[in-house]
Amino acid sequence: DAGVTQSPTHLIKTRGQQVTLRCSPISGHKSVSWYQQVLGQGPQFIFQYYEKEERGRGNFPDRFSARQFPNYSSELNVNALLLGDSALYLCASSLEGGNQPQHFGDGTRLSIL
Amino acid sequence: GENVEQHPSTLSVQEGDSAVIKCTYSDSASNYFPWYKQELGKRPQLIIDIRSNVGEKKDQRIAVTLNKTAKHFSLHITETQPEDSAVYFCAASGASNTGKLIFGQGTTLQVKP
After folding, report:
1. Contact between residue B76 and residue B19 where contact means Cβ atoms under 8 Å apart
2. Strand order, beta sheet including A19-24
3. Which residue from B3, B37, B6 is spatially nearest to B21, judged by alpha carbons?
4. Which of B98, B104, B106 sits opposite A56 (nearest CB)?
5. Is the four-CA dihedral A79, A61, B26, B13 of positive or negative sign?
6. Alpha carbon separation from A77 to A57, A69, A94, A102, A111 (Å, rounded)
7. pLDDT tens-digit profile of B23-81?
8. What is the pLDDT of residue A1?
9. Contact B99 A104 (CB under 8 A)
10. pLDDT, tens digit, for every residue of A57-82?
11. Does A48 reach chain B within 8 Å, measured CB to CB?
């Protein structure tokens, strides 16, 4: 079975632009969580979606938004990109929402110039 | 606020020795504690987890212990091998079962052959 898949793997944007990152969960998993990982630090929670509803939100500005589709895949959108948004964006899937084991994808490396 | 402190930041052991990584969490409502292994350039991989109703859990060479009163939990790796070399992250669940994981800062483990 395929694990969590994310696209694209790498992305370069300039300040002020907008970006959309995509995630497909493990087959049968209904929940997707998004994390931002800055080099040398642990991942920071952005969102969790379960059954297409936002279940949790971390301490990120409104420039960050997400949604989950009927097939449980998810998109993370970031508007008005800042240099500080440069990071690895990780998606994790779990069977259900809440405090369940989360399995990560390989991430999207976003660089802002 | 919610916080997880992880120590040490780096750990070097000889092959065959044991390694111990310790974490302390701040929110007494946390009830789920996973550990992740992240090799350079790869996804965080869930290696073991524990819930607050259990004091200890083992899986082959890996064990995790939890002390709810002191709000700390530890990862123990016995008979270390060079392939155990990686960055290890502890995490604690946030309040309200939102799926939020709060990660520690990571421990770089080097196992010398």
Report:
1. yes
2. A5-7, A19-24, A74-78, A64-68
3. B6
4. B98
5. positive
6. 14, 14, 21, 21, 15
7. 999 999 999 999 999 999 899 999 999 999 889 999 999 999 999 999 999 999 999 99
8. 59
9. no
10. 999 999 999 999 999 999 999 999 99
11. yes
Tokens 């080097």 — which residue?
B110
Rounded CA-CA distance B49/B89 in Å is 12
Measured between beta carbons, the chain A residues lying within 8 angstroms of B96 are: 56
Query: Alpha carbon of A56 to those of A60, A73, B12, B61, B100: distances in Å?
Result: 12, 17, 37, 34, 7
CA distance A54 to A33: 10
Token pair of A8 as six digits: 């694209």
Q: Which residues of A touch B43 (CB under 8 A)?
A: 4, 90, 104-107
Three-state secondary structure of A27-95:
CCCCEEEEEEECCCCCCEEEEEEECCEEEEECCCCCCEEEEECCCCCEEEEECCCCHHHCEEEEEEEEC
Per residue in B3-24, pLDDT (tens digit) is 999 999 999 999 999 999 999 9
pLDDT reading at A33 higher than 70: yes
Average pLDDT over residues B82-102: 92
Residue for token pair 């998606």 = A91
